[in-house]
Amino acid sequence: MKEFVVYTLLRLGLFVGAFAVVFGIWDLVADQVPVVIVLVLAFIISGAASLFLLNRQREAFARRVEARAAKASAAFEEMRAKEDRED
What we know:
mainly alpha, 91% helix, 0% strand
């Protein structure tokens, strides 16, 4: 669960940072700032940046999910084998 929280908070931080940068640049260049367009650009920029900057955290989260899935699968197979022995 820790890996999920860390990755999510870092993604959120990237988004907020990208939003601040895009908003700031747009505000310097133009009189009006279309917030919807800034949101979309910040979403795209933060998504692309997270592919490179958050690779280690994403892989740690994926390993954690894979381990939990393997554990659940093993428990299911154990229950299934026990059920087959009882029949």
